[in-house]
Specification:
Elements (H helix, E strand, L loop, with lengths): L2 H23 L1 H7 L7 H24 L4 H23 L5 H4 L1
Helix pairs in contact: 1-2, 1-3
C-alpha cells in the first residue's frame, strides 16, 4: 500500500469529517444544504458526534502514521454507505445536489 497516498487521504478526510460533524449537528446547516431533518434533534447531534469522533480518529492515524485497518475499513464503508444512500435519494428527488457534495 502506498503510505504517502494513504497519509494524504487521511489529511483530506479530517476536515471533511469535521465539516460533516458541524453540518449534521446544526439544523440550519442541514436544511441549507438540503439534508432531511431528523425526527428529533437528538439524532442529528448523535450523528454529528459520531462523525466528529471519526475526524479525531483519522487525525490520530495521520499524526501517528500507524494505520489501523479495521478503523480505516469502517471509515471507508461509512463514507461509501453515505454516498450510495445520498445518490439513491438524489435520484428519487428526495435529496438536493448540494447534499451530495
Amino acid at each position: 500500500m502506498n503510505h504517502r497516498l494513504l497519509q494524504l487521504a487521511l489529511w483530506i478526510t479530517v476536515p471533511i469529517n469535521a465539516t460533516g460533524a458541524v453540518i449534521f449537528s446544526t439544523p440550519a446547516l442541514r436544511q441549507l444544504i438540503g439534508l432531511p431533518a431528523p425526527a428529533h434533534s437528538f439524532y442529528g447531534l448523535l450523528i454529528g458526534i459520531w462523525i466528529g469522533l471519526f475526524a479525531l480518529g483519522f487525525l490520530r492515524l495521520a499524526l501517528s502514521k500507524r494505520y489501523d485497518r479495521t478503523f480505516l475499513a469502517v471509515g471507508a464503508f461509512g463514507k461509501l454507505s453515505f454516498f450510495v444512500l445520498a445518490l439513491a435519494y438524489f435520484f428519487r428527488s428526495e435529496l438536493g445536489a448540494l447534499a451530495l457534495l
